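ok so i was messing around last nite and threw this chain in just to see what happens. nothing serious, just curious
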Amino acid sequence: MTTNINQYRQWIDQLLDDGRTVQVPVHGMSMFPILMPRDTVQIRRLSFGEMKPGQVLVFERDGQWVAHRLIKKDVKNSLLITRGDGLPYIDEPVDVASAKGIITKVIKTRSPFAWSINTRIDRILVWTGPITGRVFWMAGRVVSWGSRVSSSGF
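result:
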C-alpha cells in the first residue's frame, strides 16, 4: 500500500512540475473549518517568489503531504512558516524544496467556509490565527467527535 501511495504522490508531483493543476482529496482536520476530510481541492505549483502569506500551501513533511496556511516567508533562509487553521500552534519551518504548491480552489466540500480560499479572509486568518486556531481546534474536536458518535450507530 505504501508503494502505491508513493507512486501516486510521484505522479502528482510530476504533473505539478509539468505546470498542470491537479485535484486531490483532503484528509484530516488541521484546516478545519475551511477544509474538511473528503473535500477535494485543486493544487498548482508556484515559485517561492509567487507564494504569499494567506495562501494555503501544500508541502511534504515526514512522507506526508500537508495543507496549511502560509503565515510568513523567511526569504533569507528560503523557509516557509505555516499553521493549520484548526491548530493552536505554528508548524516547524518548511524548506521551500518541500513545497508542492498552493490550493487554488475547493472543488467538493462539506464546509460552508470553503468559499473563503483565496479571498481577503485568507490574509485575515494569518493575523487572527493564534486566537482562531484555538477556537477552530476545539470546534473541530466537537465536530469529529460528533461524526464518530453518529457513524457508530448511536
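not much to say yet. The chain has two helices and seven strands.
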